[in-house]
Amino acid sequence: MRCPFCGADETAVADTRVNDEGDIVRRRRRCLKCDKRFTTFERAELRMPQVVKKNGSRVDFDRDKLAASLCLALRKRPVSGEAVEAAVSRIEERLLALGEREVASARVGEMVMRELKKLDKVAYVRFASVYRNFEDVDEFSKVIREVSHPAQSGR
Question: Are residues 64 and 100 in the same domain?
Answer without folding.
Answer: yes
